[in-house]
Amino acid sequence: MTPEEDPYFGDDALRALQAARDVEVPEVRDVPGIVTHGRVFSSDDPDRLGWDRMREVMAREGSVQVRGATPEMIRTAEAELADFAPKLHLWDMFMADAEQVRAACGAIVAEGLPEGVSHQPHGTLSAQDLHEMQAFLDSHGVSPLSKPALAGTLFPARTVVLRGPEGGIVATGFACMTHNAHSWLAGVAWVGLIAVDPAMRGLGLGKTADALANLAAVDELGATGVVEFVATDNAASRAVLSACGLSQVPDRTVVMFTQSATRMTR
After folding, report:
1. How far is the C-alpha of 116 from the C-alpha of 101, rounded, in Å?
2. I need a surface site. Which of 40, 101, 189, 219 has the fewest CB within 10 A?
3. Which residues contact 54 (CB under 8 A, 6 or more apart)?
4. CB–CB of 228/246 below 8 Å?
């Protein structure tokens, strides 16, 4: 199997996580409290899902995530997972409804792309293109998903690829529907995997890639809104989200409980 044919990317641990998330999609897509797919096993309502399931995955994989955790939920999780002595990695949540996305992101996309930069349509992405995207994300500190996930064959998804004058990838984005009908985020798309070639920064490509992904979420996937995650100290990404019409959700945090001190993705 060539690297381009391999669905997964990265070291053995990362490939194992990608495979685990892909395989479990049919089982978990309608289970209350489980997010259909992610980098690690994720819950948007661990009390409803049950902490036994969270502990089971923690014991097997060393990490679990809670999306939209309140301060009270974080305290509960720390107590329920105390035997694993987990380290906490946190991201803030930003959201916008479809109307806000169309207004803010539509204006950004209408400005056009810099000279020599082109948007490769999702439907034209080959296995080679997706492998190139995985490598691009990995090289910029963003943990990639599997090729089937990026292609949208496991769940509704759209991938954004911007190419530069020499034909290589210069920016990426992604939108997907992974919160099921039981979730408080039902109908909301997750947007992420935003990365920009450092040599092309200052041209607004991150903002454009994010805007394209958000528009794809609401106009192509039918999302009622979007949600994105960003670290507290990532000022550049927070500015991009604000420009795209998203606002921080008060008292809601994305928390990864992990036995590793290394942050999986920025």
Report:
1. 26
2. 219
3. 41, 43, 46, 64, 77, 80, 81
4. yes
Q: With contact defined as beta carbons under 8 Å apart, do 66 and 178 qualify?
A: no
Please name which of 231, 156, 178 lies closest in space to residue 41, comparing C-alpha atoms.
178
**C-beta atoms surrounding 60 within 10 Å:** 11
* pTM exceeding the 0.70 threshold for the entire prediction: yes
d(CA 183, CA 44): 7
Averaged pLDDT, 124-147: 96
Angle between helices 235-243 and 205-219 (to 10 degrees): 50
Q: Give the bridge partners for 217, in sequence order.
A: none
How many Cα atoms sit within 13 Å of 11 on the Cβ side? 4
Average pLDDT for residues 69-93, to the nearest whole number?
96
Look at the block and give the residue holding tokens 């192509």. Answer: 220
Q: In the structure, what pLDDT confidence band is assigned to residue 5 with cuts at 50, 70 and 90? A: confident
SS (H, E, C) the chain: CCCCCCCCCCCHHHHHHHHHHHHHHHHHCCCCCECCCCCCCEECCHHHHCHHHHHHHHHHHCEEEEEEECHHHHHHHHHHCHHHCCEEEEEEEEEEEHHHHHHHHHHHHHCCCCCCCEEECHHHCCHHHHHHHHHHHHHCCCCCCCHHHHHCCCCCEEEEEEECCCCCEEEEEEEECCCCCCCCCCCEEEEEEEEECHHHCCCCHHHHHHHHHHHHHHHCCCCCEEEEEECCCCHHHHHHHHHCCCEEEEEEEEEEEECCCCCCCC
